[in-house]
Structures are given as structure tokens and as C-alpha cells.
Amino acid sequence: MFLFGILGILQVWFLPGITLLSFNRKLKFIDCIILSLPLSITLNTIIVSLLVFFKIYYQTSILILVGLELIIIFLNLYRSTYFRNSILHLENFIKLKNNIAFKFNLIDLANLVFFVFICYFGLKTLGEVIHIGDAIRSFNPWSIFWFNSSPKDFGFYTPGMSILMSVVYKFINNTDVEFFTRAILIIYPIWIFFIFYRTSVLANKFQNYIKISLLITLFVFVYIFRNYGMYIGLNEPLLFLTSSSTAFVFYLLYLYKNKLSYFEYIISGLIVISSPILKQTGFFICFIFPIFYLFFFINKKNFREVIKNTIFIIIPIFGPFIWITSKAYNILFLKTQTSNLGFIISLNQGSLLEKLENIFGFMWIPFLALIFLGLINKHSLKLFLIISLPFFALYYFYFGYDNRHISLIVPFLAINISFGVYELVNKFKIYNFKYPIYFFNFLGFISIILILLILNNYRSTERLISSNLNKKNERGDKVLNSLIYHYVDKNNFKILSIPDQMDFRYLPKIENRVIVKHDCKDLLKNEEKYYLLIKSSYCQNLIGEEMRDYYRDNKFKTLFFYNDHYLFIK
Q1: Could you tell me which of 185, 268, 319, 342 has the fewest CB atoms within 10 Å of its CB?
Q2: Which residues 6+ apart lie within 8 Å of 224 measured at CB?
Q3: Does residue 559 sit within a domain?
Q4: Tens digits of per-residue pLDDT, 101-150?
Q5: Is residue 261 part of a domain?
Q6: In which element (H, E) is residue 22 found?
Q7: pLDDT band at 350 (very low <50, low <70, confident <90, very high)
Q8: Distance CA 426, CA 287 (A)
Q9: Residue 312 CB: number of other CB atoms within 10 A?
Q10: Is residue 71 part of a domain?
Q11: Range of 90's domain?
Q12: H helices then E strands: how many in the chain?
């Protein structure tokens, strides 16, 4: 099962995307690897939908599919001289024959801090079951419907996440084991780093500004999600990945221009539709992308060519729009389905300033100023008017009740902000200023102090004390501790703990009530009423099999048994 679980995760992450991209002869191997992740979201959705439609969604059929994918990948890589060089470079790198030249600066250090932070919270979820919330209420039950080839209709909710979860379940052929399903989300926020750093290599002249875009994206990501960004059940972390991938696709279209074939344009469309496959808000990017492509590229010389390219981009986009049109028709006209869209819109409250602070935190004023400064640049202005501003208007008027819903355009807002930084540096000739000696050391020190003061404001003394107390309550076995608290909170009786190997005497609220002994027969003689907390295996070795009879004879009543521990009351 473990190997099938790992194979299922690889199918969700990479295999379909790499298989299709292995037919490409224009994009570099590293770009194909990066794009395979969002492309696999789309392809897995199509594959599972077809298998369910033809009633052949079985473990056997999906394993055969993986076998075919691997054969196609290896055959295409073996035959392709285009990819062979890239693989040889990778081989030499593994052999330590090739080095990667990399310049590391302060922006990289800041991004590295976020990288470690996000990886830490991602790895913490390994070995965990599905978390509470939308995951346990919606996506997991829906994925089981897909697993059983009987998907249900849930209005405007798109099926992407549920289908990806069902793929892992189908590989292990079991819906009780949730470890692998929970793990699929880990890679998506981390993958954003590779997208931005690959772009910074391709656009070397603007390398630092692209890294600043990443830094801002990560800042907002962590601000909105904290550690919950790693929990499956929140689609929005995936939207960070799919919208970043969409921006990366657009840059590749700009970089290669007339060198790409129609195959690459269709692939671009398939990657773009990964957003609406995961969440309804993704339809915005799906709709805007072809329009933005036209605005950016079209002119009198290449009019026909750009129109043809746009048509090939739009071909995959028809799929999601046919789906949502049919849903809207059924809900609004036939009344055969229902939707909670009206209820969601009714939740939208708050002023513009509150919504800006919910998105950018304490940085909303400088970020907003940089966005407006960046509009001096015509490319930033196009991006703002076609993508950032329209979506923010929708967010503000309709679904701004939850800051997670802005996730789709955060990478684009970050690009607008980095354009602002670019204009600030170049228009005001900041690099030409003559700064006092050690000025930037002093500025860095002041920045650290300001950050600490801001964090101190957000982390009040009361919150720190409350959080610390809750953690202490969970020290050891938190379930066992909860059971103990449940019973002993009812009064102030003493608690005799034998042999107290789990240090119950240090638990908050009861620490002064716990008496520790090591002899299971050495009971309290001066207390008429008290609790007895014993480790069962320890006392059985000393008293024998008649242990419970011994305590019953001494007028003790059993309250619970959990994790080798009895709690009695006298």
C-alpha cells in the first residue's frame, strides 16, 4: 500500500503533465518539469472524468495508465536529442561535474526564510489524517463519491480537488487511509519558488524585481494562511500555484513568441484552466487570459498569427465554460439544482480599508503606494487594468468576506508592486544617491526593530499566555489529558498518580493537586475522597491480574481507561 500511495501522489503531481509535455520540442526540460504540476491537475481531472463516464475507474485501469505514461515518457526522452542534452546536464550535476552558478543576496535570504517556514509546516502534515473544515465536510466525501464512480452534483462547486483526492484513494484502493491524500497539498506552495526563480533566470535583467514579486507573494500567502496553508481542504493555496503558473506561461509565450507551435498554445490553455477546475474564482483568470494575450501581443503586422494562437489557447478553455454554463442553466432556469452563491455574497461586509488590511496586513499602505507608482509602466498598467483591478472589484463587492478569496490574483498584485519598486529605483535614481557610511546597516537594524515591534503588537501578552497555557494542557498525550481535565475539573479532590511517568504533576490547573507515589498499594489514608490515576501495565506487574478487584475492594470506581491509564475515584 505504501508504494501505491507514493505512486498515487506522483500521478497527482507530475506523471500526466510530463507525459504530454514529453511530446513538446520547443520548451526546455526544466520548464516542462515546472509546468507539469499545474498541467497534471487538468489532465487528472479529464482522465478520471472519462474513466468514470465509461465505468472503468478501477485500480487496475489506473495502474495500466501509469504504466503507459512511464513508457511514453521514457521513449520520448530517449528519442529526443532536444531533451537528451538536458538529461545529460542533470546527470553531470548529480556526478558533481557541473556546478550551478548562483548569486545570493538579501532578497534571496528573505525568500529562503519563507521557503523554510512553508516547508516546515508542510512536512508537519506528513502522517496526519484529513483536517477539519471543508476537507472533512465536503472534499473528502465528494472524493469518495468519485472513488465509487458515482459523483454527486454540488452546484457551482468544481470537482478538481475531490478528483485529485480520489486518484490517491484509487491507487491504494482504500478510503480509510488518509495519510497520502493529506500529503498531496504539500508541494503546491513550495513549487511557487521554482516558478519565480526560473523566471528570474530567464529574465536575468529584472532578476531582483522578480524575486521581490516572489517575496511579496509569500508574505501575503503566509499572512493569509499561516500554518493552515498546508492543510488540505483549502483550495486557495493551490490557486497561488495555478495563478503563478499562468503568469509563467504568459512569460514563456512572450519569450518564445513566434517559435512555438500550436501544440504549446493548447498546452498553455490546459494549464490556464487548472484554476477554474479547482475553484469557481479561477474562471476569472480563465476568461481574462486570452484577452490579456490579445492586448499584449496584437498589432497590424502579426494580427492573423496572434488571432490563430488565441484560438488554440481558447480551445481547452471552452471545457470549463461549457460546464459552468450548464450549471447556471440548471440552477437559474430549470431549478433542478441549487446553489449557495446568494448566501455567500450576503456574507460580504467591511470597508475598503479593512479589506486592504486583511490582504496585506500592516504593509497595506506601502504596497498600495507602490501599486499606483508602478502604473507609470505601461506593462504594469495593462496588468492592473485587465487583471488586478477587475478581480479586486469583484472581491470587494461580492466575496470579500474571506481574505482567502483574493489568492487568485496575489501573484499579479505582487508583480504590480515590484513594478512600483522598479519605477521607484529608476525614476528617482536611488542607486546614484550618496549614502552615509554604514547607512544600510543602520537601515537594516531599524527595519528589524520595526518588524519586532509590529509582531509584538500582533502578539499581545494575553495571547501569548493563553497560547502557552493551551500548549501546556496538551503536553504528553493530549487526549488523555483532556479526559483527565473533563473529570477532575468538577471538584478539588486530590489526585494520586502512580507512577506518574507522563508527568501529570506538571499539568496546569491540577499541578498542586497531584501526589506522586510509586507503590500501587500505597494509597492515601488521610483523604476520604480523591482520584487515583495509575498506569495499568505498571501496577499489574506489581499487583497481578487481580489489580482491578484490588481497587474495587478499596471502594474505587472506574471513570475511564485510555492509553494504558486508569482513572478511578474514591
Answers
A1: 342
A2: 236, 359, 403, 404, 406, 407
A3: yes
A4: 667 778 888 889 888 888 888 888 787 777 766 777 788 888 899 999 88
A5: no
A6: none
A7: confident
A8: 34
A9: 18
A10: yes
A11: 1-101+130-184
A12: 28, 5
**In a domain? residue 441:** no
Give the span between the Cα atoms of 359 and 380, in whole angstroms: 20
Contact 237, 407 (CB under 8 A): yes
User: How far is residue 233's CA from residue 157's CA, in Å, rounded to a whole number?
Assistant: 13
Q: What would the pLDDT profile of 419-446 be if each residue is shown by its tens digit?
A: 998 888 887 776 666 666 666 667 667 7
The per-residue pLDDT for 136 is 76
Pull the grid cell for residue 420. 512600483
Q: At which residue does the C-alpha cell 488565441 appear?
A: 310
User: Which region among 82-96, 232-246, 464-478, 517-531 has the lowest average model confidence (pLDDT)?
Assistant: 82-96
Q: Is 349 exposed, middle or buried (0-12, 13-18, 19+ CB in 10 A)?
A: exposed
Q: The cell 480551445 sits on which residue?
A: 315
pLDDT at 520: 87
HSE-CB at 377 with a 13 A cutoff on CA atoms is 21
Nearest residue to 168 via CA among 72, 44, 67:
44
- Of 71, 38, 65, which is closest to residue 51 (Cα–Cα)? 65
Which of these three, 184, 218, 250, is where a domain ends?
Answer: 184
DSSP state of 28: -
Q: Contacts by 551-559 with C-beta closer than 8 Å and gap 24+?
A: 554/523, 556/532, 559/487, 559/531
- Domain end (from 184, 211, 226): 184
Helices (H), 257-330: 262-272, 274-278, 282-297, 303-329
Neighbours of 340 (CB within 10 A): 12
- Tell me whether residue 469 is exposed, middle or buried, using C-beta atoms within 10 angstroms of its C-beta: 0 to 12, 13 to 18, 19 or more: exposed
Take residue 307 and report the three cell numbers written for it: 488571432
| Cell numbers placing 194 | 521554482
Distance (Å, whole) CA 450 – CA 430: 22
* Distance (Å, whole) CA 340 – CA 134: 15
C-alpha cell at 15: 506523471
**Residue 478's pLDDT band (cuts 50, 70, 90):** confident
Number of domains in the chain: 2
